Amino acid sequence: MEMPTTTRQQTTVSFPAVPGGEQHRDIGWGLGMDETTAPARSQPGRQPAPGDDEPIEETVAAEVVEAVQAARQEAAELTQDAPLYGSPGRPLNRRSPFTVGLFGAFGVAVAYLVARMLLDASSVLVLIGLALFLAIGLDPAVQWLMRRRMPRWAAVTVIAVVTVAVVGGFLAAAIPPLVAQATQFANQLPHYTSQLRDHSTTLGHLDARFHLQDRIDKAMSTLNAGDVFGGLLGAGKVVLSATTSTLTVLVLTIYLLADLPRIRRLIYRLIPASRRPRAILLGDEMFTKVGGFVLGNVLTSLIAGVGTFVWLAIFRVPYPILLAIAVAILDLIPIVGSTIGGLLVSLVALTVSVPIALATLAFYVAYRLAEDYLIVPKIIGRTVQVPATATVLAVLVGGAVLGFVGALIAIPVAAAVGILLREVAFPRLDNA
After folding, report:
1. How do residues 340-349 score in pLDDT, each as one tens digit?
2. What are the distances in angstroms from CA 37 to CA 23, 26, 59?
Protein backbone atom coordinates (compact mmCIF):
# COMPACT_ATOMS: atom_id res chain seq x y z
CA MET A 1 0.00 0.00 0.00
CA GLU A 2 1.43 3.25 -1.09
CA MET A 3 1.63 6.07 1.47
CA PRO A 4 0.37 9.49 0.30
CA THR A 5 3.07 11.96 -0.46
CA THR A 6 3.02 15.20 1.58
CA THR A 7 4.19 18.35 -0.15
CA ARG A 8 5.06 21.48 1.76
CA GLN A 9 3.69 24.72 0.37
CA GLN A 10 6.22 27.45 -0.15
CA THR A 11 5.09 30.96 0.81
CA THR A 12 7.03 33.90 -0.46
CA VAL A 13 6.96 37.58 0.47
CA SER A 14 7.64 40.19 -2.19
CA PHE A 15 9.23 43.45 -1.15
CA PRO A 16 8.20 46.76 -2.75
CA ALA A 17 10.93 48.34 -4.79
CA VAL A 18 12.26 51.76 -3.85
CA PRO A 19 14.18 54.27 -5.99
CA GLY A 20 17.69 53.12 -6.77
CA GLY A 21 16.84 49.42 -6.97
CA GLU A 22 17.18 48.87 -3.24
CA GLN A 23 14.58 46.97 -1.23
CA HIS A 24 13.00 47.83 2.09
CA ARG A 25 14.41 46.38 5.29
CA ASP A 26 13.39 42.78 5.98
CA ILE A 27 10.16 42.37 7.88
CA GLY A 28 12.11 40.50 10.53
CA TRP A 29 13.64 43.74 11.81
CA GLY A 30 10.13 45.10 12.41
CA LEU A 31 9.43 42.07 14.63
CA GLY A 32 12.21 42.85 17.08
CA MET A 33 15.01 40.82 15.51
CA ASP A 34 18.52 42.17 15.27
CA GLU A 35 21.27 41.24 12.85
CA THR A 36 22.18 38.13 14.89
CA THR A 37 18.66 36.66 14.79
CA ALA A 38 17.36 38.04 11.48
CA PRO A 39 17.67 35.89 8.35
CA ALA A 40 20.74 36.45 6.31
CA ARG A 41 20.29 38.72 3.32
CA SER A 42 21.71 37.96 -0.07
CA GLN A 43 24.80 39.91 -0.91
CA PRO A 44 26.78 40.04 -4.14
CA GLY A 45 29.59 37.51 -4.10
CA ARG A 46 28.40 35.84 -0.89
CA GLN A 47 28.85 32.05 -0.82
CA PRO A 48 25.93 30.08 0.70
CA ALA A 49 26.62 28.85 4.23
CA PRO A 50 26.15 25.15 5.13
CA GLY A 51 22.77 25.93 6.74
CA ASP A 52 21.44 27.99 3.85
CA ASP A 53 19.47 25.17 2.27
CA GLU A 54 16.12 26.96 2.04
CA PRO A 55 15.49 30.09 0.01
CA ILE A 56 15.77 33.36 1.91
CA GLU A 57 12.23 34.39 0.95
CA GLU A 58 10.80 31.17 2.43
CA THR A 59 12.74 31.72 5.68
CA VAL A 60 11.42 35.26 6.01
CA ALA A 61 7.86 34.06 5.30
CA ALA A 62 8.14 31.38 7.97
CA GLU A 63 9.27 33.95 10.53
CA VAL A 64 6.34 36.21 9.62
CA VAL A 65 3.82 33.35 9.86
CA GLU A 66 5.14 32.33 13.28
CA ALA A 67 4.93 35.93 14.54
CA VAL A 68 1.35 36.31 13.26
CA GLN A 69 0.29 33.02 14.86
CA ALA A 70 1.86 34.04 18.18
CA ALA A 71 0.05 37.38 18.08
CA ARG A 72 -3.29 35.67 17.34
CA GLN A 73 -2.77 33.22 20.18
CA GLU A 74 -2.01 36.02 22.64
CA ALA A 75 -5.09 37.94 21.45
CA ALA A 76 -7.23 34.83 21.91
CA GLU A 77 -5.96 34.39 25.46
CA LEU A 78 -6.84 38.00 26.26
CA THR A 79 -10.32 37.67 24.76
CA GLN A 80 -13.04 36.88 27.29
CA ASP A 81 -15.39 34.09 26.19
CA ALA A 82 -18.53 35.47 27.85
CA PRO A 83 -19.36 38.39 30.15
CA LEU A 84 -19.28 37.45 33.83
CA TYR A 85 -22.37 39.45 34.76
CA GLY A 86 -24.66 38.81 31.85
CA SER A 87 -24.86 39.91 28.23
CA PRO A 88 -24.66 43.64 27.49
CA GLY A 89 -27.76 45.43 26.30
CA ARG A 90 -28.38 46.99 22.93
CA PRO A 91 -26.15 49.99 22.04
CA LEU A 92 -27.48 53.49 22.54
CA ASN A 93 -29.54 54.76 19.64
CA ARG A 94 -27.48 57.56 18.11
CA ARG A 95 -30.51 59.01 16.37
CA SER A 96 -32.59 59.48 19.50
CA PRO A 97 -33.37 63.12 20.45
CA PHE A 98 -31.54 62.69 23.75
CA THR A 99 -28.33 61.50 22.06
CA VAL A 100 -28.46 64.19 19.40
CA GLY A 101 -29.08 66.92 21.99
CA LEU A 102 -26.35 65.59 24.29
CA PHE A 103 -23.67 65.48 21.61
CA GLY A 104 -24.83 68.81 20.19
CA ALA A 105 -24.53 70.50 23.60
CA PHE A 106 -21.14 68.86 24.11
CA GLY A 107 -19.93 70.18 20.73
CA VAL A 108 -21.11 73.71 21.56
CA ALA A 109 -19.32 73.56 24.93
CA VAL A 110 -16.09 72.38 23.31
CA ALA A 111 -16.30 75.11 20.65
CA TYR A 112 -16.87 77.73 23.36
CA LEU A 113 -13.88 76.52 25.39
CA VAL A 114 -11.65 76.51 22.31
CA ALA A 115 -12.78 80.04 21.40
CA ARG A 116 -12.06 81.24 24.96
CA MET A 117 -8.62 79.66 24.89
CA LEU A 118 -7.82 81.32 21.56
CA LEU A 119 -9.03 84.70 22.82
CA ASP A 120 -7.01 84.41 26.04
CA ALA A 121 -3.90 83.46 24.08
CA SER A 122 -4.49 85.95 21.26
CA SER A 123 -1.59 88.21 22.23
CA VAL A 124 0.84 85.28 22.33
CA LEU A 125 -0.54 83.87 19.07
CA VAL A 126 0.00 87.25 17.40
CA LEU A 127 3.65 87.25 18.52
CA ILE A 128 4.11 83.69 17.26
CA GLY A 129 2.51 84.58 13.93
CA LEU A 130 4.71 87.66 13.58
CA ALA A 131 7.83 85.63 14.41
CA LEU A 132 6.86 82.99 11.82
CA PHE A 133 6.25 85.76 9.29
CA LEU A 134 9.73 87.20 9.92
CA ALA A 135 11.33 83.73 9.83
CA ILE A 136 9.79 83.06 6.42
CA GLY A 137 11.04 86.48 5.34
CA LEU A 138 14.61 85.74 6.43
CA ASP A 139 14.64 82.26 4.91
CA PRO A 140 15.66 83.51 1.42
CA ALA A 141 18.85 84.90 2.95
CA VAL A 142 19.52 81.51 4.56
CA GLN A 143 18.87 79.76 1.24
CA TRP A 144 21.30 82.15 -0.46
CA LEU A 145 24.06 81.19 1.98
CA MET A 146 23.23 77.49 1.60
CA ARG A 147 23.69 77.78 -2.16
CA ARG A 148 27.25 78.92 -1.34
CA ARG A 149 27.89 75.46 0.19
CA MET A 150 27.23 76.52 3.75
CA PRO A 151 25.28 74.09 5.98
CA ARG A 152 21.90 75.29 7.20
CA TRP A 153 22.89 75.52 10.86
CA ALA A 154 25.83 77.75 9.94
CA ALA A 155 23.67 79.88 7.63
CA VAL A 156 21.02 80.33 10.34
CA THR A 157 23.73 81.24 12.85
CA VAL A 158 25.17 83.87 10.50
CA ILE A 159 21.76 85.40 9.81
CA ALA A 160 20.85 85.38 13.52
CA VAL A 161 24.14 87.02 14.52
CA VAL A 162 23.81 89.64 11.79
CA THR A 163 20.18 90.37 12.76
CA VAL A 164 20.99 90.72 16.46
CA ALA A 165 24.05 92.85 15.65
CA VAL A 166 22.03 95.15 13.38
CA VAL A 167 19.22 95.56 15.93
CA GLY A 168 21.66 96.01 18.82
CA GLY A 169 23.85 98.44 16.90
CA PHE A 170 20.81 100.40 15.79
CA LEU A 171 19.56 100.72 19.37
CA ALA A 172 23.03 101.58 20.69
CA ALA A 173 23.44 104.29 18.06
CA ALA A 174 19.89 105.63 18.25
CA ILE A 175 19.04 105.63 21.97
CA PRO A 176 21.61 108.23 23.22
CA PRO A 177 20.74 110.85 20.55
CA LEU A 178 17.07 109.97 20.96
CA VAL A 179 17.22 110.64 24.69
CA ALA A 180 19.19 113.84 24.12
CA GLN A 181 16.74 115.15 21.53
CA ALA A 182 13.75 114.19 23.68
CA THR A 183 15.30 116.09 26.59
CA GLN A 184 15.96 119.04 24.31
CA PHE A 185 12.34 118.99 23.19
CA ALA A 186 11.16 118.99 26.80
CA ASN A 187 13.43 121.94 27.57
CA GLN A 188 12.14 123.84 24.54
CA LEU A 189 8.48 123.50 25.53
CA PRO A 190 8.42 126.84 27.41
CA HIS A 191 9.94 128.52 24.35
CA TYR A 192 7.28 127.02 22.09
CA THR A 193 4.62 128.18 24.55
CA SER A 194 5.92 131.74 24.36
CA GLN A 195 5.88 131.55 20.56
CA LEU A 196 2.21 130.61 20.73
CA ARG A 197 1.53 133.91 22.48
CA ASP A 198 3.58 135.87 19.94
CA HIS A 199 1.33 136.31 16.92
CA SER A 200 4.26 137.41 14.76
CA THR A 201 5.70 133.86 14.70
CA THR A 202 4.46 130.82 12.76
CA LEU A 203 3.14 129.14 15.90
CA GLY A 204 1.46 132.39 16.85
CA HIS A 205 -0.40 132.50 13.54
CA LEU A 206 -1.50 128.89 14.04
CA ASP A 207 -2.65 129.69 17.57
CA ALA A 208 -4.64 132.69 16.35
CA ARG A 209 -6.39 130.52 13.80
CA PHE A 210 -6.92 127.27 15.68
CA HIS A 211 -6.75 128.46 19.34
CA LEU A 212 -4.05 125.94 20.24
CA GLN A 213 -3.15 127.62 23.52
CA ASP A 214 -6.73 127.49 24.80
CA ARG A 215 -7.05 123.84 23.96
CA ILE A 216 -3.75 122.97 25.64
CA ASP A 217 -4.71 124.90 28.78
CA LYS A 218 -8.10 123.19 28.87
CA ALA A 219 -6.52 119.77 28.54
CA MET A 220 -3.95 120.52 31.26
CA SER A 221 -6.60 121.85 33.64
CA THR A 222 -8.52 118.57 33.54
CA LEU A 223 -5.47 116.63 34.70
CA ASN A 224 -4.66 115.95 38.34
CA ALA A 225 -1.76 114.32 40.12
CA GLY A 226 -3.40 110.89 40.04
CA ASP A 227 -3.94 111.10 36.30
CA VAL A 228 -0.34 112.18 35.72
CA PHE A 229 1.01 109.38 37.92
CA GLY A 230 -1.28 106.86 36.25
CA GLY A 231 -0.20 108.10 32.83
CA LEU A 232 3.47 107.77 33.71
CA LEU A 233 2.89 104.31 35.16
CA GLY A 234 0.94 103.29 32.08
CA ALA A 235 3.69 104.61 29.83
CA GLY A 236 6.23 102.56 31.78
CA LYS A 237 4.10 99.46 31.36
CA VAL A 238 3.80 100.10 27.64
CA VAL A 239 7.58 100.48 27.28
CA LEU A 240 8.23 97.32 29.32
CA SER A 241 5.62 95.35 27.37
CA ALA A 242 7.01 96.56 24.05
CA THR A 243 10.55 95.58 25.07
CA THR A 244 9.44 92.14 26.23
CA SER A 245 7.43 91.56 23.06
CA THR A 246 10.36 92.62 20.88
CA LEU A 247 12.76 90.22 22.62
CA THR A 248 10.17 87.43 22.45
CA VAL A 249 9.65 87.93 18.72
CA LEU A 250 13.41 88.06 18.14
CA VAL A 251 14.06 84.79 19.99
CA LEU A 252 11.07 83.04 18.40
CA THR A 253 12.17 84.21 14.95
CA ILE A 254 15.60 82.61 15.39
CA TYR A 255 14.13 79.32 16.65
CA LEU A 256 11.51 79.17 13.89
CA LEU A 257 14.09 80.05 11.25
CA ALA A 258 16.30 77.19 12.40
CA ASP A 259 13.38 74.73 12.39
CA LEU A 260 11.57 76.04 9.31
CA PRO A 261 12.19 72.98 7.05
CA ARG A 262 10.72 70.68 9.69
CA ILE A 263 7.71 72.99 10.16
CA ARG A 264 7.22 73.03 6.41
CA ARG A 265 7.27 69.24 6.21
CA LEU A 266 4.86 68.96 9.14
CA ILE A 267 2.38 71.30 7.45
CA TYR A 268 2.54 69.31 4.23
CA ARG A 269 2.16 65.98 6.08
CA LEU A 270 -1.23 67.16 7.33
CA ILE A 271 -2.48 67.25 3.71
CA PRO A 272 -3.79 64.06 2.04
CA ALA A 273 -1.18 62.30 -0.07
CA SER A 274 -3.22 62.63 -3.26
CA ARG A 275 -3.19 66.43 -2.96
CA ARG A 276 0.26 66.82 -1.40
CA PRO A 277 2.32 67.63 -4.54
CA ARG A 278 -0.03 70.45 -5.54
CA ALA A 279 -0.12 71.72 -1.94
CA ILE A 280 3.70 71.81 -1.88
CA LEU A 281 3.77 73.91 -5.05
CA LEU A 282 1.17 76.35 -3.73
CA GLY A 283 2.78 76.56 -0.28
CA ASP A 284 6.25 77.19 -1.64
CA GLU A 285 4.85 79.94 -3.86
CA MET A 286 3.26 81.59 -0.81
CA PHE A 287 6.53 81.32 1.15
CA THR A 288 8.38 82.95 -1.77
CA LYS A 289 5.98 85.89 -1.81
CA VAL A 290 6.24 86.41 1.95
CA GLY A 291 10.05 86.26 1.88
CA GLY A 292 10.35 88.69 -1.00
CA PHE A 293 7.93 91.14 0.60
CA VAL A 294 9.62 91.14 4.03
CA LEU A 295 13.14 91.76 2.73
CA GLY A 296 11.94 94.36 0.23
CA ASN A 297 9.83 96.16 2.83
CA VAL A 298 12.76 96.38 5.27
CA LEU A 299 15.02 97.82 2.57
CA THR A 300 12.48 100.45 1.50
CA SER A 301 11.98 101.47 5.13
CA LEU A 302 15.73 101.91 5.59
CA ILE A 303 15.84 104.08 2.46
CA ALA A 304 12.97 106.21 3.81
CA GLY A 305 14.68 106.64 7.18
CA VAL A 306 18.06 107.57 5.68
CA GLY A 307 16.45 109.98 3.22
CA THR A 308 14.52 111.66 6.04
CA PHE A 309 17.65 112.09 8.14
CA VAL A 310 19.62 113.62 5.25
CA TRP A 311 16.81 116.05 4.38
CA LEU A 312 16.30 117.20 7.97
CA ALA A 313 20.04 117.56 8.54
CA ILE A 314 20.42 119.74 5.44
CA PHE A 315 17.62 122.13 6.42
CA ARG A 316 18.42 121.98 10.14
CA VAL A 317 15.00 120.74 11.17
CA PRO A 318 15.14 119.74 14.87
CA TYR A 319 15.19 116.13 16.06
CA PRO A 320 16.43 114.52 12.82
CA ILE A 321 17.30 111.13 14.34
CA LEU A 322 14.03 110.86 16.24
CA LEU A 323 11.99 111.73 13.17
CA ALA A 324 14.04 109.48 10.86
CA ILE A 325 13.42 106.49 13.15
CA ALA A 326 9.70 107.32 13.28
CA VAL A 327 9.49 107.52 9.47
CA ALA A 328 11.40 104.22 9.02
CA ILE A 329 9.04 102.41 11.41
CA LEU A 330 5.93 103.94 9.88
CA ASP A 331 7.13 103.13 6.37
CA LEU A 332 6.90 99.43 7.24
CA ILE A 333 3.13 99.89 6.93
CA PRO A 334 2.30 99.72 3.21
CA ILE A 335 0.36 102.45 1.41
CA VAL A 336 -0.17 104.86 4.33
CA GLY A 337 3.02 104.57 6.38
CA SER A 338 5.25 106.99 4.51
CA THR A 339 2.37 109.45 4.12
CA ILE A 340 1.75 109.60 7.86
CA GLY A 341 5.48 109.96 8.50
CA GLY A 342 5.73 112.79 5.97
CA LEU A 343 2.87 114.72 7.59
CA LEU A 344 4.47 114.29 11.02
CA VAL A 345 7.84 115.58 9.83
CA SER A 346 6.19 118.49 7.98
CA LEU A 347 4.43 119.58 11.17
CA VAL A 348 7.72 119.57 13.06
CA ALA A 349 9.30 121.55 10.20
CA LEU A 350 6.76 124.31 10.88
CA THR A 351 8.82 125.21 13.96
CA VAL A 352 11.56 126.37 11.54
CA SER A 353 9.53 128.19 8.89
CA VAL A 354 6.56 127.76 6.61
CA PRO A 355 8.72 127.50 3.43
CA ILE A 356 10.77 124.71 5.03
CA ALA A 357 7.57 122.90 6.01
CA LEU A 358 6.15 123.20 2.49
CA ALA A 359 9.43 122.02 0.99
CA THR A 360 9.43 119.05 3.37
CA LEU A 361 5.88 118.19 2.37
CA ALA A 362 6.84 118.37 -1.32
CA PHE A 363 9.86 116.16 -0.60
CA TYR A 364 7.65 113.43 0.86
CA VAL A 365 5.19 113.67 -2.03
CA ALA A 366 8.09 113.19 -4.47
CA TYR A 367 9.51 110.38 -2.34
CA ARG A 368 6.15 108.63 -2.26
CA LEU A 369 5.96 108.71 -6.05
CA ALA A 370 9.54 107.45 -6.33
CA GLU A 371 8.83 104.68 -3.83
CA ASP A 372 5.70 103.50 -5.63
CA TYR A 373 7.03 103.62 -9.20
CA LEU A 374 10.80 103.13 -8.82
CA ILE A 375 12.00 101.75 -5.48
CA VAL A 376 9.33 99.11 -4.78
CA PRO A 377 9.28 97.70 -8.34
CA LYS A 378 13.10 97.45 -8.34
CA ILE A 379 13.45 95.88 -4.89
CA ILE A 380 10.32 93.75 -4.55
CA GLY A 381 9.66 93.46 -8.28
CA ARG A 382 6.80 91.20 -9.25
CA THR A 383 7.21 88.87 -6.28
CA VAL A 384 3.98 90.09 -4.68
CA GLN A 385 1.36 90.57 -7.37
CA VAL A 386 -1.60 92.19 -5.63
CA PRO A 387 -3.94 94.69 -7.33
CA ALA A 388 -3.94 98.22 -5.94
CA THR A 389 -7.54 98.03 -4.74
CA ALA A 390 -6.93 94.72 -2.96
CA THR A 391 -3.78 96.18 -1.38
CA VAL A 392 -5.63 99.17 0.09
CA LEU A 393 -8.50 97.01 1.36
CA ALA A 394 -6.10 94.44 2.85
CA VAL A 395 -4.12 97.11 4.72
CA LEU A 396 -7.28 98.73 6.09
CA VAL A 397 -8.80 95.42 7.23
CA GLY A 398 -5.50 94.14 8.65
CA GLY A 399 -4.92 97.36 10.58
CA ALA A 400 -8.47 97.29 11.97
CA VAL A 401 -8.15 93.66 13.10
CA LEU A 402 -4.56 93.41 14.39
CA GLY A 403 -3.29 97.00 14.39
CA PHE A 404 0.29 97.55 13.28
CA VAL A 405 0.98 93.81 12.91
CA GLY A 406 -2.14 93.34 10.78
CA ALA A 407 -1.21 96.19 8.46
CA LEU A 408 2.33 94.79 8.19
CA ILE A 409 1.29 91.29 7.07
CA ALA A 410 -1.77 92.37 5.08
CA ILE A 411 -0.21 92.36 1.61
CA PRO A 412 1.45 88.88 1.82
CA VAL A 413 -1.79 87.46 3.21
CA ALA A 414 -3.69 89.06 0.33
CA ALA A 415 -1.18 87.54 -2.10
CA ALA A 416 -1.67 84.08 -0.54
CA VAL A 417 -5.46 84.45 -0.78
CA GLY A 418 -5.05 85.47 -4.42
CA ILE A 419 -3.07 82.29 -5.13
CA LEU A 420 -5.75 80.12 -3.52
CA LEU A 421 -8.50 81.86 -5.46
CA ARG A 422 -6.65 81.60 -8.78
CA GLU A 423 -5.45 78.00 -8.40
CA VAL A 424 -8.20 76.37 -6.32
CA ALA A 425 -11.48 78.30 -6.08
CA PHE A 426 -11.82 79.67 -9.62
CA PRO A 427 -11.05 76.33 -11.41
CA ARG A 428 -13.67 74.57 -9.30
CA LEU A 429 -16.22 77.25 -10.06
CA ASP A 430 -15.40 77.05 -13.77
CA ASN A 431 -15.91 73.28 -13.77
CA ALA A 432 -19.07 73.39 -11.67
Report:
1. 888 889 888 8
2. 19, 12, 12
Question: What is the three-class DSSP state of 299?
Answer: helix
Contact 42, 23 (CB under 8 A): no
CA distance 228 to 225: 5
Cα–Cα distances (Å) from 300 to 73, 212, 257, 330, 359, in that order, read 71, 36, 23, 11, 22
Query: Could you tell me where the DSSP H helices lie in 211-275?
Result: 212-221, 225-258, 260-269
- Reported as a single tens digit per residue, the pLDDT across 88-147 is 777 777 778 888 888 889 999 999 999 999 888 888 888 888 888 888 888 888 888 998
338 touches 331 (CB < 8 A): yes
Residues 6+ apart with CB under 8 A from 15: 23, 24
CA angle 283, 289, 293 (to 5 degrees): 150
Calpha distance 317→340 (Å, rounded): 18
Buried b (16+ CB within 10 A) or exposed e, 361-376: bebbeebeeebeeebb
Q: Count the helix, strand and coil residues of the chain and give each as a percent rounded to the nearest 5.
A: 75, 0, 25
Quote the CA–CA distance of 53 and 36 in Å, as a whole number. Answer: 18
CB 301 within 8 A of CB 307: no
**Residue 329 burial by CB count (10 A; 0-12/13-18/19+): exposed, middle or buried?**
middle
Kindly list the domain boundaries of the chain, sorted by start residue.
Answer: 120-270, 274-432
